[in-house]
Amino acid sequence: MMIPENPYLLLTPGPLSTSKTVRAAMNRDWCTWDSDYNELVQTIRSSLVNLSQGGSEYTSVLMQGSGTFSVEAVLWTCLKPDSTILVISNGAYGNRMAKIASMMGVGLEVLTFSEGKQPDPEIVEKTLRAHREITHIGMVHCETTTGMRNLYAPIAELAGKWGKVFILDAMSSFGGIPLDINAPKIDFLISSANKCIQGVPGFGFVLADKGLLQECEGNSKSHSLDLFDQWQTMEKNKGKWRFTSPTHTVRAFLQALQELEEEGGIEARYQRYCTNHKILIRGMENMGIRAFLSPEDQSPIITAFHEPKNPGFSFEKLYHLLKSEGFVIYPGKVSQAPTFRIGHIGNVFPEDIHRLVAAVEKIKFW
């Protein structure tokens, strides 16, 4: 049976629309024991460190599963029974990190900010002063619940000042928003294949300070999610995974990395995403549809919009009408207001966003 070409663009925070050449890279099989395949893995690992500007002090580890598997792998590997982590949350994915930590039985402090508010460094420092037992700080960079681009740098600086290990969930930002993992220092950065690097789902990855990762030997109470053990196996066996790896996804990711470089690197991709976002915001505002966040807090990854108050509006209707026009969007995830979300990352370009806006205009709920 013939598989049809993509009938729509995925305007989501991932999985997202990929290029034909990324998909075509999956059209052959690989042996996980073969040196040809393991060399691909090593190329990917070094490329990720270079993208982060980590230098020789950092390493990268690939981990099977969704991005959440890699978040959990970092927590299992970093945290000891007597550790205490401070999780800073203003959305669903910060809450998810806190839930994982709570199930591990380690010490946990959670600072919760509203979904439309930046984490306050003064409150964070006050918490560190009051809870000297805190050993780690974790937070999300781009909270796709709302599209919030959290200002992680002041929190990372506090982690350095107070001698805490800083963990950043950069799932939906790494590769699409420029950052330097050393300035300020991020000890463990977590992301996924199917986000801004524009690969397909199947694995996540962690960029880690080598010295700190070395100290984590024996911490994990999970065999499958032992990041240290995965790292040691990849190091000693030159790209070999402990268990069966998603070979097709890995090859597609290498192609995606090559296409990122051809586009001009992270800065060029960031500019494209920003342009996509500006066109979307302008078009929706012209129809009276307001973004949930203020402009200074908005990431170029995904935007949450207030649902129109028109009694004829329903997300389901909007979703299916846009799908018929060739676009898939996301339902809202904001707890305090009815919203829907539209992503602007992936193999999506300004002309695509112009077409989307024209499609929304045709619906006329409002």
What report would you give on this structure?
Keywords: Aminotransferase, Pyridoxal phosphate, Pyruvate, Transferase. Homodimer. Its cofactor is pyridoxal 5'-phosphate. The protein has helices spanning 20-24, 35-52, 67-78, 92-104, 121-130, 153-162, 210-214, 227-236, 247-263, 265-286, 315-324, 350-363, and strands at 9-10, 58-64, 84-89, 107-112, 136-140, 142-143, 148-149, 165-169, 188-192, 203-209, 302-306, 327-328, 330-331, 339-343. The protein starts with 8 loop residues before the first strand and ends with a helix. Helices cover 40% and strands 17% of the residues. α4 links the parallel β3 and β4 (107-112). α3 (67-78) crosses α4 and α5 (121-130) runs parallel beside α6. By secondary structure, the chain is of the alpha/beta class. Strands 2-10-9-8-5-3-4 form a seven-stranded mixed sheet, sandwiched between helices. The protein has a three-stranded antiparallel sheet with strand order 11-14-13, with no helix packed on it. The chain folds into two domains: 21-261, 3-Layer(aba) Sandwich (Aspartate Aminotransferase, domain 2), CATH 3.40.640.10; 265-363, Aspartate Aminotransferase, domain 1 (Alpha-Beta Complex). The longest helix is centred in the C-terminal third of the chain and has 22 residues, at 265-286.
